[in-house]
From TrEMBL:
<dbReference type="InterPro" id="IPR015424">
    <property type="entry name" value="PyrdxlP-dep_Trfase"/>
</dbReference>
<dbReference type="GO" id="GO:0008483">
    <property type="term" value="F:transaminase activity"/>
</dbReference>
<dbReference type="InterPro" id="IPR000653">
    <property type="entry name" value="DegT/StrS_aminotransferase"/>
</dbReference>
<feature type="modified residue" description="N6-(pyridoxal phosphate)lysine">
    <location>
        <position position="184"/>
    </location>
</feature>
<keyword id="KW-0032">Aminotransferase</keyword>
<dbReference type="InterPro" id="IPR015421">
    <property type="entry name" value="PyrdxlP-dep_Trfase_major"/>
</dbReference>
<protein>
    <submittedName>
        <fullName>DegT/DnrJ/EryC1/StrS aminotransferase family</fullName>
    </submittedName>
</protein>
<comment type="similarity">
    <text>Belongs to the DegT/DnrJ/EryC1 family.</text>
</comment>
<dbReference type="InterPro" id="IPR015422">
    <property type="entry name" value="PyrdxlP-dep_Trfase_small"/>
</dbReference>
<dbReference type="GO" id="GO:0030170">
    <property type="term" value="F:pyridoxal phosphate binding"/>
</dbReference>
<dbReference type="GO" id="GO:0000271">
    <property type="term" value="P:polysaccharide biosynthetic process"/>
</dbReference>
<feature type="active site" description="Proton acceptor">
    <location>
        <position position="184"/>
    </location>
</feature>
<dbReference type="Pfam" id="PF01041">
    <property type="entry name" value="DegT_DnrJ_EryC1"/>
</dbReference>
<keyword id="KW-0808">Transferase</keyword>
<keyword id="KW-0663">Pyridoxal phosphate</keyword>
Length: 373
């Protein structure tokens, strides 16, 4: 279908090609090339952190963060059930215990009142995940964790360029992680970064990323690491993308605003919140949640929209309902009604940066048609 509107298409019309050519012309294509350090420095500065450690993707950024904090057997880590598998996987792979909380039905972010209820003497960390365009209220979270000495990993994979009470997302807690997958606000194709103000944690992440090679005796290892390195080619694209971040955020906000306008009066849907007391939505994706009165679920809505050339995606499926974790004996008998409902009734419309005004209009028209029929 030639006029199919995909759920995401990135914008690569800045200096991406120029910087990539520099890599080819100079022969610097591995992680040793200069764009990697440039991206680390510029990205860390952008989010107000001292150190940046570029890695292969946003999922392994979480693995490295969990490992750097020495989270392991006996340690409990609180996280939202409504998130991507990468978050819980990093905790489970480290041998630590994931402890879940439900979401708020309006922001779709983790419910902080439940965080407080889930704290035990074994709670070592909270993994906060900002969802879809609005951040978790990080000041409120840190007010809970800091007095108790609980660490915070901020998964800001969907939040480049967002702020929380005017402080950049990615600047909160002990370590923050980002993804540069093509549907994120800035992309390197595949890629991610860990940012922190703690020199020790930064060093650990650098070492873990690079197989824990030692500077003194390269092939003698005290610890097991991974190859999570980012290539200079990827970082070159990242540097070019970072130059455009403000433009991209403006575009995303315009996109959200246009969808809001064009979907006015469409019955049966909950739209994203425009703002909270601590942030304005940046619409990483434009999510919709079907009201209970709508006689079909998100899967059916996605099917109907696809039949008319619109590519949509379902919301996350909650961690407590993942077969892989249930088989491990995790989350037995647990229920999180808000996340369960979001998973079944939520989906998002095409939200990529390359989306045109004409496409937005068509998506809105088709959505209106599907929901009114
Ligand atoms: C995309 C994403 C990740 C994973 O990033 P990858 O680069 O795809 O591995 C992790 N957490 C959140 C919240 C994400 O949206």
């Amino acid at each position: 279908m030639s006029n199919f509107i995909p759920v995401n298409e990135p914008l690569l019309d800045g200096n991406e090609k120029k910087y990539l050519c520099e890599c080819i012309d100079t022969g610097w294509i591995s992680s040793e090339g200069p764009f990697v350090q440039r991206l680390e420095k510029e990205f860390a500065a952008r989010v107000g952190r001292r150190f940046g450690i570029a890695v292969a993707n946003g999922s392994v950024a979480l693995d490295a963060a969990v490992a750097a904090l020495d989270l392991g057997p006996g340690d409990e880590v609180i996280l939202p059930t409504f998130t991507i598998i990468s978050c819980a996987a990093a905790i489970v792979r480290a041998g630590a215990t994931p402890v879940l909380v439900d979401s708020e039905s309006d922001t779709w972010n983790m419910d902080l009142s439940q965080v407080e209820q889930k704290i035990t003497s074994r709670t070592r960390a909270v993994m906060a995940v900002h969802i879809f365009g609005l951040p978790v209220d990080m000041d409120a979270l840190l007010a809970i964790t800091q007095p108790r000495g609980i660490k915070v990993i901020e998964d800001a994979a969907q939040m480049h360029g967002q702020t929380c009470r005017d402080q950049p997302c990615g600047s909160f807690g002990d370590m923050s992680t980002f993804s540069f997958y093509p549907n994120k606000h800035i992309t390197t194709g595949e890629g991610g970064i860990i940012v922190t103000d703690d020199e020790g944690l930064a060093e650990r992440c650098r070492s873990l990323r690079n197989l824990c090679f030692k500077p003194e005796k390269r092939f003698v290892h005290e610890e097991l690491g991974w190859n999570f390195r980012m290539s200079n080619l990827q970082a070159a694209v990242g540097c070019a993308q970072l130059e455009r971040l403000d433009t991209f955020i403006t575009r995303k906000r315009q996109m959200g605003c246009r969808y809001d306008e064009l979907l006015v009066g469409v019955p049966g849907i909950q739209k994203p919140l425009v703002r909270t007391a601590w942030a304005e939505n940046i619409y990483w994706v434009y999510g919709l949640v079907l009201d209970d009165g709508v006689p079909y679920d998100a899967e059916e809505a996605i099917r109907r929209l696809a039949a008319q050339g619109i590519g949509c995606r379902p919301f996350f499926w909650p961690m407590h309902e993942q077969p892989v974790f249930r088989r491990m004996g995790l989350f037995t008998g647990e229920s999180y009604p808000v996340a369960e409902r979001l998973a079944r009734r939520g989906f998002y419309l095409p939200s990529g940066l390359a989306l045109t005004e004409t496409q937005i209009r068509r998506v809105a028209d088709v959505t209106r048609g599907v929901l009114v029929s």
